[in-house]
Write a structure and sequence with these properties.
Length: about 220
């Protein structure tokens, strides 16, 4: 299934509930929530209290991208706040397998993110342990950056690795995604696209429609 996951990092934080509702009503399937701790990445964003409040605004899947050192410390609380998918960075977990188990045990779907410089081959042992893999197509920490072209090859390689093991997992791509490059990202083997600026800068409804249309075209 092809999925659009608007990242609220680019939304108007003074009207967060309305922005989330607008993305939902326009047809986006997930809401992507970027949690940053000021340690794994330079920025600090928001955490459980904000996510818990937003949970009342939509029934869409909450895709929580944790840019946090040792995110295992927060898994339970994050699930309680309303996370459906909990995505942790391979680089931030000393015991990644254990953290993925914790996520599954608390009833959320586990996902693993890798930075641009982290090879997808480092995921070979845990391909069957996560429901989704997130290929970062910018260095995490900020919205509005340019898509790094070499990450396309990482998407292809990861899809091939999954296929070779007879596994299916979602491949999500995050950073610099727009209606202009959506098609080639999907063609490389991704099926979940995160978009921050491309959704929340300007008319949310029109932006979501444009992105969903671009994603559809590729399917034909
Ligand atoms: C970056 C975040 C992204 C970000 C994407 O660290 O993980 O989710 O919001 O923003 P755009 O789509 O503007 O690159
Ligand atoms: Zn993100």
């Amino acid at each position: 299934m092809r999925v659009l996951a608007p990242s609220i990092l680019a939304a108007d934080f003074t009207r967060l509930g309305e922005e989330v509702r607008a993305a939902d009503l326009a047809g986006a399937q997930y809401i992507h929530l970027d949690v940053m701790d000021g340690a794994f990445v330079p920025s600090i964003t928001f955490g459980m209290p904000v996510i818990e409040r937003l949970r009342a605004c939509t029934d869409r899947v909450f895709d929580v991208h944790m840019m946090v050192e040792e995110p295992g410390r927060y898994v339970k609380e994050m699930r309680k706040a309303g996370a459906d998918i909990i995505c942790v960075h391979a680089e931030a977990c000393r015991h990644l397998d254990r953290t993925l188990n914790q996520i599954r045990e608390c009833g959320a779907r586990p996902a693993v993110a890798v930075n641009p410089a982290t090879p997808v081959e480092s995921l070979s042992c845990i391909l069957g342990e996560a429901d989704m893999f997130l290929i970062m197509s910018v260095n995490p920490g900020f919205g509005g950056q340019r898509f790094i072209p070499y990450t396309l090859e990482k998407i292809r390689r990861l899809r091939r690795m999954l296929d070779e093991q007879g596994l299916f997992a979602d491949i999500e791509v995050d950073g610099g995604v727009s209606a202009a490059n959506a098609k080639e990202i999907l063609a490389a083997g991704a099926n979940v696209l995160v978009a921050g600026s491309a959704v929340f800068h300007g008319d949310v409804r029109a932006n979501v429609r444009r992105l969903l249309a671009a994603m559809e075209e590729q399917a034909e």
